[in-house]
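User: My instructor asked us to take a sequence, write out its structure as tokens, and then describe one feature of it. I'm not sure where to start. Here is the sequence I was given:
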Amino acid sequence: MRIIDPLTYFFLKVVKKYISNQSYKKRFKISQIISSLLYNHLPIRKKLAKKNIKQAFPEKSDHWVDSTLRSCYQISVHHFLKFISFPKSWNNAKYEIKGLKILDGAMKQNRGVILLAAHFGPWELMGAWLGNNGYHLTGVAQKQKNAGANTFFVYQREKSGADHIYRKESFDKMYKILERKKILVLISDQDAKKKGVFVDFLGTSASSPKGAAIFHKNTNAPLVVGTCIEKDHNHYIIEFLPVNPPKNTVKSITQTYTSIFAQFILKYPKQYFWFHDRWKTKNDEKN
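Assistant: Let's start with the prediction itself. The structure tokens for your sequence are:
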């Protein structure tokens, strides 16, 4: 183990303890200070994020793009601090739940549920709400290179009763979750390289993960999109929507839920995490 790994874990635990003891308003103020420092002095992936926003909104002015990017920094840091201060950050939060009948109806089919989410809004909060309200879910997560950070993030996610497995683990583990009639959570909005299927995402062809579509085709487990947005300070809207593709093909299934993601991103662009290289893989085929 590298020395940086336990140091990172210790640092995150200290930050968690400090942030957890602050009020919502104080946490929000701290997040604004940190985001300003990142935006102005540590612009990691800033150019990429700006490029992505311009690509998704070509008709918008440079001023709008810059304003959206700055807000993206602020919101992302705010949501991260909320995540690391679980469970105290749940205190006094207000939740508006939409489409719960969609999720419950899918659960009643007794095939398990494939719950699809994007890096949009406080997506970790949706998982926490589900876990705290009796829904048995397992999220497929990317294992962090830093072992200390990875241990801390797993600990935080499991505080809500949610389980997790890593992306590179056996598919059999994921199938077993559905066989046990539980919820398999897949974050499905990142570049999937040449192994992905190309679908339209915000007006540009994007390589997208095939996993959700393949699981659905092999198990007939229903697909549901879950989103979480921050409507106002400490007021959240969690919404569940059905995925009804016109064709039972990998491309059609993937395009259907990707289009649902896009609808929310177009409506709330400041709450999307623009820092991933979403259009990194180019489509060599003409659509």
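For the description part of your assignment, you could build on this observation: The mean pLDDT is 94. Try explaining in your own words what that tells you about the chain.
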